[in-house]
Automatic annotation (TrEMBL):
The keyword Signal applies. One of its GO terms (molecular function) is cysteine-type peptidase activity. One of its GO terms (biological process) is proteolysis. Keywords: Disulfide bond, Hydrolase, Protease, Signal, Thiol protease. This is Cysteine protease. InterPro entries: Papain-like_cys_pep_sf, Pept_asp_AS, Pept_cys_AS, Pept_his_AS, Peptidase_C1A, Peptidase_C1A_C, Peptidase_C1A_papain-like, Prot_inhib_I29. Residues 137-353 form the Peptidase C1A papain C-terminal domain. PROSITE patterns: THIOL_PROTEASE_ASN (PS00640), THIOL_PROTEASE_CYS (PS00139), THIOL_PROTEASE_HIS (PS00639). PANTHER family: CYSTEINE PROTEASE FAMILY C1-RELATED (PTHR12411). Belongs to the peptidase C1 family.
Amino acid sequence: MSVSRFLLTVLVVGIVCTAAAPRALAARELAGEEEVAAAAVMASRHEKWMAEHGRTYKDEAEKARRLEIFRANAEFIDSFNAVGKHSHRLATNRFADLTDEEFRAARTGFRPRPAPAAAGSGGGRRFRYENFSLADAAQSVDWRAMGAVTGVKDQGECGCCWAFSAVAAVEGLNKIRTGRLVSLSEQELVDCDVNGEDQGCEGGLMDDAFQFIQRRGGLASESGYPYQGEDGSCRSSAASARAASIRGHEDVPRNNEAALAAAVANQPVSVAINGEDYAFRFYDSGVLGGECGTDLNHAITAVGYGTAADGSRYWLMKNSWGASWGEGGYVRIRRGVRGEGVCGLAKLPSYPV
């Protein structure tokens, strides 16, 4: 290449670079402005969320940390809802500024036994609904409509979902047997049922709660032994006033939704699920289906089943996170999934007798 051609090439490249530099700079500035605008929108969204849920923080550093957690959760929720192919929607509910660890400790609490021990739970009793024909059952069941379900409760920041699940099942059975719906005491289980797997706000399981209620001869009412949302000393005098009793409990055959349907057609049933999965934690409405882990860490109560307008079959489940969560405190979960069921709901169901 001649010197003149080389100099010409250098000159052209210089001109092109000089012309491109302002465009690149403008693009970077625009991207920066968009990031600032997006951050401002998210901060405003967080402020509105704080006002809605009455959330305050101790200082600006804590608020900034919570904003980042909120941002990550909100972006996941927005992305999920934007896809449009899911049968349910998520929401930035009151758990949106909690870390996974914080949420798990405060809002779940199911503690399954090691598999060998769990296999023998239920005292070796047969499944009493094994010969029940679903062909003779109603196409849909809603124990709320039959007056066998108390109002939605809130476990607060206490990992005692197991107590709420067991109590809801006993409340339903008591209504079916006696005709009286009585709100029963979760706090008695939290305070008094502490000599086995059940450890109050540190977790437990429904089968042990049923065994405790059976041994004690019953359970106090909510009004007689009200919920405090924290571990306390057993109040024997309050616990002595029995408002409902059971004779024992039985386990639904595992990973068998037909058997679960037979049980739910006859009474509310305690169910263990994966409650920390984002699909469940941030559930807002619709029929929850699709991807959801099956590691069991939370407990709810199956109070019915039915079919949605689009033909989706679902379980109707009562949760213990207050009426602002989900569909008025309830969740519909896809029914008829083989194996462990959505969120593991078919793995360890049980009910009082």
